[in-house]
From TrEMBL:
GO terms for biological process: double-strand break repair via homologous recombination; regulation of establishment of protein localization to chromosome. One of its GO terms (cellular component) is nuclear chromosome. Residues 1-113 form the DUF4502 domain. Residues 176-188 have a biased composition (Polar residues). Residues 176-198 are annotated as: Disordered. Transmembrane segments: none annotated. Residues 265-648 form the DUF4503 domain. This is SPIDR protein. Pfam families: DUF4502, DUF4503. InterPro entries: DNA_repair-scaffolding (IPR053054), DUF4502 (IPR028026), DUF4503 (IPR028032).
Amino acid sequence: LCRGGLAERLCRLQNRERSAISFWRHQCISDGTIPSDKSGVLIVKILEIFEECTIQVAICQQLEQSPATLSPEDAVINAEEPILKVLFTRETAAHLKSRPQDVIHIYPPWQKLLLQNADVPVIMNTYFSQKVLLSEHSEAREKTYGLTKMLIRKNIISLAQTFRLDDLDDKLHQGSSDNQVPCASKTHNNGDSKQHPSALSAVNDSLLEMVERQGAVGWREVQVRVVIQRVYCLPAREGHRSHTQGHKPLLSNGGMFCRLCLLVQDAYGMFSEVQLQPLSSTDDIEQYCRRWEGKSCCLAGMKILQRTTRGRALGLFSLIDSLWPPVVPVKFPGQSQDSEMMTTNLPPPSFCYILTVQSGEIHVEVDEGEQISNLYQPPAVHGLKEILRIDGCNERCSFWAQVLYQRLQTKHSVPIDQREMLLFVTDSTLQNVAHGIPKAVAVSVTASCVLSTEIIEALSAGSQLVFFKDALWGNGRIICVERTVLWLQKPLLCWAAGADLSELPGPVRLDGLDSTTQANSICALRGTVVGVNESTAFSWPTCNRCGNGKLELCPQDRELLYCSQCSEVVTAPVLKMQLEVFLSCQSRSQSTVKVKVWHEISTGVLCAVRLDTYEVQSVLGKEVGLLNCYVHSVTSHPNCVVLEEIVLL
């Protein structure tokens, strides 16, 4: 909020108002008496109650007095006093729990509003109100009525009626009997829903209208019809873990608890994120994506968790922006229904409601049998070459790519489950490029991106073709963040650019080491060994069957090695050796090129080295073949490149 602006002043005023109301009610409860000061107090007797636009409207008659000796039924009514229409907010109504025949004391500063062409004055600012129990008979009646639920008539006023549109939705024109819903402060359980089938009968198509009408406490009696644009998982905070799972572990991404979420859009183009229950398995996310994305569903039993804006949730709004503008005309209150007007020049959404399910109630009815909605926008699949040429920042992109190499970022101060992972990928559009664009790019997978167990196991097994859906592109990097989904199989619906991008034209080629090579990239290297760092060289034996590098001395024969994984004696161990060698490379003749190589990998470098020892002279002058390397660092002062030999998946 702008400092000193109207919005900031209004926010402070509302905070002071809420504090004053809470303090006044607490004082009344503590004293247990009606305030003695009756100056300016309006005393009314309720005749009828109904609800309209989240406001409780009470038709009342003013009383001259409310003697303590009389019950509300016997209170004196002045027939000459006009009927009053008293407005109570949702919070005040929940506090009063009023019924017809109740006597209410309304304390200043209440206000009387006189409307043109209306005979009944309207009483507003009724925050300081108190229901009066004038006798033991009334208290007994209150206790009896408190155990039963009261049906309050709701006058549903649609946005179409408010804006006087011609195309009124017939679904919203229902009789008053259909709009009778239980009014109670307690949460309905499943049994209550079955007892009141009409509570879920009304279907609306506007998220904003439901939020404005039902308020922050949520809605149960009316459903909202929306289209599921995206299905994904979000990491769940500690306080949001579900207790319904008992001791069974929830979906986990390296120990991270996750929650199933939907990004939905209504007929007016408005978006909301719906946070549902935790999943029992990470692999369920792909199943929900295939079954639900693009389908229409009805939401009920929702409550507002947060109203967020573009500045507070850049990741969410980058996904919303990728789905904007709508591909088909949407409804637009107050404007004519001209399709051209409703698909062009529409401002992108500036806010979004985060919805969650009411405690113990989940009502998301997806019609999986119906066709894909026309409002649905499947991910637009592009080649990596096209993505690298995008000028924008924080743009969502989807692509197929072959994963060549994965590497966990080694930041020792950060826990392993919170570290970023680098996936080096390529596709046919990069492999076919001669110059100017790298043949492999790094995709950074942040800790907040939920990976399924299937993806993690597949990448550990070898090179995989992976579909990256809704990754984030900006500042020359591709990042998998919250709301990014990785698949191993092709989605049923996608907008592909050109031919199939998943097939590589031949063997994978990497860029050679040159002056444009940057840190945290992979490249191919040729050169001549000109030096060896003997102080960092070391070797260790490994099992020739399973590759276990932690061999033990055999208990029966201390001269032999024993593998605990194979549970057998290792008679022919494989010796692994690490060396740091300095190379002379024509592509970077002015730079010191230091490469960490491995014995088992670099047979070309160490072909003259015996397994138990080595001679430096046998390595110097050796020509290094085409080595695949990861670039640790590139510095100009001193002019040095540090690399590590790697094996592609």
